[in-house]
Amino acid sequence: MDLMAMRAALPQSQLPQQRMSACCLRSQACFPSKWKSQARDRALRATSVAGKSPSTEQMLIYVPAHPLVKHWVAVLRNESTPPPVFKSAMAELGRILIYEASRDWLVTMTGQVQTPCGVADVEFVDPREPIKVVPILRAGLVLVEHVASVLPATQTYHLGFVRDEETLQPTLYLNKLPEKLPENARVLVADPMLATGGTMIAAIEELIKRGIDHRLMRVVAAVAAPPALKKLSEKFPGLKVYAGIIDPELNDKGYIVPGLGDAGDRSFAT
């Protein structure tokens, strides 16, 4: 059966309105209507069980202790790394961080499938609940370059910010978010550098305006610094941040030290 036939075999009400990979389409063809869809977010469940209000939650910061994370960060740090290699390294680091960020977060479906040898209880990521991916232009595009190889179903929306070099305040110049996003939608926000935190705070606030609970968001960054993490923690308790490394400080121009320079310029050779 070809992909179009598999897609036609499913009720249209069960199909998400976004581009999907062949793998995703093949998965959908295996989903009986009686399957159960379930949300997996242990952090929110724990909060509910403990009776704590969101305001008492803490932001969680994850730095995966994986040799490949350290390897790609090292390649990114090296000022001698040429732009094509830098861009590839950023994309590979993003792939790992997205994988880590998706743990205990994705909406899944449980049921049974017929294997060549019998019946198996299985669990799939529900393609009817695509992850909303929001790269912050322009360097965020590189960090999520391989997102489709990690997540079975995604929708991508773009936000563009430019930072004033004097005030270090962000200005929004591109907003491709819809006016409203689905309730309980999972959103992955990507920006390689969390320096002052201004850009990420502005991006999250734009998402909250559209009905997104920040506790259902995941932030991925190549490098983070204490000023950004402090501000994010104060404004968005319960947020989860995944970073390749945390550096100690910023310089007087608002760049992370030792950092890796301007991620956008180094990715696009400008």
Could you please describe the fold and organization of this structure?
The termini are far apart. The strands form three sheets. Strands 2, 5, 6, 7, 8, 9, 10, 11 and 12 form a nine-stranded mixed β-sheet that branches. Strands 1-3-4 form a three-stranded antiparallel β-sheet, with no helix packed on it. The chain has a two-stranded antiparallel ribbon with strand order 13-14. Helix 4 packs antiparallel against helix 5. The N terminus is likely disordered. The longest helix has 19 residues. Helices cover 31% and strands 26% of the residues. It has 270 residues and is α/β, with parallel strands linked by helices. The protein is built from nine helices and 14 strands. The radius of gyration is 20 Å and the shape is globular.
Proportion of residues in extended strands:
25-35%
Give the ordered list of helices and strands. HHEHEHHEEEHEEEEEHEHEEEH
Backbone shape: globular
Please count the beta strands (DSSP E, at least 2 residues each). Answer: 14
Q: Using the CA coordinates, give the radius of gyration.
A: 20 Å
Count of discrete alpha- or pi-helical segments spanning 4 or more residues: 9
| N/C terminus separation | 47 Å
Helix content: 25-40%
Structural class: alpha/beta
